[in-house]
Amino acid sequence: MESMRKPEGGQETSLDLIEQHILPGELNYMPDTRLPHFFSVLANHASRKLHSMYNEQFGLSVMGWRIMAVIGNHAPISAKAMCEMMATDAVTLSRGIDQLYGKGLVRRKTDPADRRRQLISLSKKGIEVFERIVPLYYAVEQAMMSALDETDQAHIRRIMPKIVAHSANVLSSETSWEVVLQRYGYRAEGEDIQSFE
User: Fold this and answer.
1) I need a surface site. Which of 52, 76, 81, 178 has the fewest CB within 10 A?
2) Any domain includes 186
3) Residue 90: how many CB atoms within 10 A of its CB?
4) CA geometry: angle at 176 spanning 170 and 178, to 5°?
5) pLDDT per position in the chain (197 positions), as tens?
6) Is 7 inside any structural domain?
7) Burial class of residue 129 (count of CB atoms within 10 Å of its CB; 0-12, 13-18, 19+)
């Protein structure tokens, strides 16, 4: 993991680093008006509505559906690749795959290019379940986007993949939170935060 650099002549603690990046009050920076909060709220709205259907109809968990959604578009796929796409840890993912396997929704096969690795695909039953959940997924997305005109919708669809890909790089599990704070915090060189009244 990429960790925090220690300054010459002394040991900087995590608390010291946090103190260095405390935001001045005049910035009026409110976390609940920023992207991480908005993304979390949107994800919760969508997940709650979808879960009410796929849990009732197919007994799926939130993680189970997230895994199926990725497999449905990228099969055959390794667990490692799924971890990276989903920004989740290997233990949680493995548990979710095991549950889907127990329900007969996924298949495992040895990767011919690397016999130590397994590739995951949807089973015939899994494909049928996937195809029955996707229509509600589509409807939920349309409901969320219906507040925007076609131009704004196009901008969102163009911008979001860039944000996701960049976030996967700069906020990867290999980079500590201290490094993120050093590079992008308020006191980071060249970083400015817009004030919102």
Assistant:
1) 52
2) no
3) 12
4) 100
5) 555 555 555 567 889 889 989 998 888 899 999 999 999 999 999 999 999 999 999 999 999 999 999 999 999 999 999 999 999 999 999 999 999 999 999 999 998 888 889 999 999 999 999 999 999 999 999 999 999 999 999 999 999 999 999 999 999 988 999 999 999 998 886 444 443 33
6) no
7) buried
Domains in the chain: how many in total?
1
The two tokens of residue 153 are 């919708």
Sole residue written with tokens 């009732």: 56
Assess if residue 132 is contained within a domain. Answer: yes
Q: What is the largest CA-CA distance in the chain?
A: 63
Structural domain harbouring 76: 29-175
Q: Is the bond preceding 76 in cis, omega lying within 30 degrees of 0?
A: yes
Task: Extract the tokens encoding 46.
Answer: 């969508």
Query: Which residue matches tokens 């290019």?
Result: 113
